[in-house]
Amino acid sequence: MKLTGVEVPAETLSKVEPNTVLMVISDENGKLNVVKVGRDSISQGEPLVRVAGGCWVLIEGRWVWKDPCPN
């Protein structure tokens, strides 16, 4: 999966809009860079990330927790 997005200010982390995916990347100096992931780069119905106990899946434009995670 190849994700695309736009860089947003780190302050965005203090108030995240519903159904938003943000990626935080720390550079070689420890500076935080925040990217708002574009929804069109995420496959509908497929897990974005798997963690112990389940995963988040985009269903009809909303992030839904699934446990167990679909294959």
Question: What's the SSE blueprint?
Answer:
Blueprint: E1 5-8, E2 22-26, E3 32-37, E4 47-51, E5 54-59, E6 62-66
Antiparallel strand pairs: 1-3, 2-3, 4-5, 5-6
Task: Provide a concise account of the structure shown.
By secondary structure, this protein is an all-beta fold.
Describe the structure.
With 71 residues, the chain is mostly beta strands. 0% of the residues lie in helices and 44% in strands. The chain is built from no helices and 6 strands. The protein has strands spanning 5-8, 22-26, 32-37, 47-51, 54-59, 62-66. The strands form 2 sheets. A 3-stranded antiparallel sheet has the order 1-3-2, with no helix packed on it. The chain is globular and about 35 Å long.
Task: Tell me the β content.
Answer: 35-45%
Strand sequence of the main sheet, in spatial order?
A: 1-3-2
- Topology order in helix (H) and strand (E) letters: EEEEEE
- Computed CA radius of gyration, to the nearest angstrom: 13 Å
Low-confidence residue ranges: none
Give the rounded overall mean pLDDT: 91
Largest sheet: 3 strands, antiparallel
Taking the alpha carbons of the first and last residues, their distance comes to 15 Å
- Helical content band: under 10%
Based on CA inertia axes, which overall geometry fits? globular
Number of helices: 0
Structural class, by secondary structure, is mainly beta
Give the number of DSSP strands: 6
